[in-house]
């Protein structure tokens, strides 16, 4: 929670993911203090060195004080991770290295979640993920390992405990967080029906960990009132009939 601790965390992030152009945060004293310290270090450099490093400066952007809703995008992601992990761990006390491993695996899952698609061909379902933006390549993660929960909880091998915790996190995330991404404006504003050709993320509670089912609407079925409540989705050359509450529309991302 100190500026020093944040700067070390920031350097770890840059070492793994690369240097960002902007950094958004609230007005916590650790963040503001870190920005001031970096600015002071830059001012103490020679003019020649400042010119060489000018392009590597990171711009800190702070949301207004007392307005956490300005950071709703990342606050919601953080809350969903913390809530799911607390539900998985409950009152158990785990080692630091185990918790770090869990968080890194969860980070990989969160950063592999589809954000949208950029292909000009609607038949080419090629979702953009945070990992692609961070690393410039496809998601690369180790496949999940299946263990017997009762036996492995009694095992002394912590890496297996990690797999059980991450499995529980995935189930919580899919069953509780993903459905919340459906926009609900009942009694206030009409929502647009899903249409043929829309790209969607399919919520599947039985999907393997880290498997995001992305498909294309090939047929929509309106009810008598004109509202579409079920649709045919093409995923990996197979067609499934799903209720719209299990479908999250992906937006087209500009290239």
From TrEMBL:
Top-level taxon: Eukaryota
Secretion signal span: none
InterPro entries membership: DUF5641, Integrase_cat-core, RNaseH-like_sf, RNaseH_sf
Pfam name, any one: DUF5641
Domain Integrase catalytic: 1-138
PANTHER family: PHD-TYPE DOMAIN-CONTAINING PROTEIN (PTHR47331)
Protein name per Swiss-Prot or TrEMBL: Uncharacterized protein LOC106814833
Organism: Priapulus caudatus
Organism classification: Eukaryota, Metazoa, Ecdysozoa, Scalidophora, Priapulida
Designated gene of the protein: LOC106814833
């Amino acid at each position: 929670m100190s500026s020093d601790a944040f700067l070390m965390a920031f350097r770890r992030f840059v070492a793994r993911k690369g240097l960002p152009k902007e950094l958004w945060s609230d007005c916590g004293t650790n963040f503001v203090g870190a920005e001031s310290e970096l600015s002071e270090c830059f001012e103490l450099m020679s003019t020649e060195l400042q010119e060489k490093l000018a392009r590597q400066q990171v711009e800190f952007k702070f949301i207004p004080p007392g307005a956490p809703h300005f950071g709703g995008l990342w606050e919601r992601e953080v809350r969903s991770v913390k809530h799911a992990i607390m539900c998985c761990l409950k009152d158990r006390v785990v080692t630091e290295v185990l918790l770090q491993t869990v968080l890194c695996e969860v980070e990989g899952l969160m950063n592999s979640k589809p954000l949208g698609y950029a292909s000009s061909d609607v038949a080419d379902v090629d979702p953009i993920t945070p990992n692609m933006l961070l690393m410039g390549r496809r998601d690369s993660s180790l496949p999940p390992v299946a263990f017997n929960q009762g036996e492995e909880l009694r095992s002394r091998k912590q890496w297996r405990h990690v797999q059980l915790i991450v499995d529980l996190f995935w189930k919580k995330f899919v069953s509780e967080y993903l459905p919340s991404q459906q926009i609900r404006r009942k009694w206030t504003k009409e929502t647009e029906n899903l249409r043929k050709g829309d790209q969607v993320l399919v919520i599947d509670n039985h999907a393997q960990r880290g498997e995001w089912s992305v498909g294309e609407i090939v047929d929509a079925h309106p009810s008598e009132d004109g509202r579409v409540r079920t649709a045919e989705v093409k995923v990996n050359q197979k067609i499934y009939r799903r209720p719209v509450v299990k479908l999250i529309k992906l937006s087209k991302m500009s290239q």
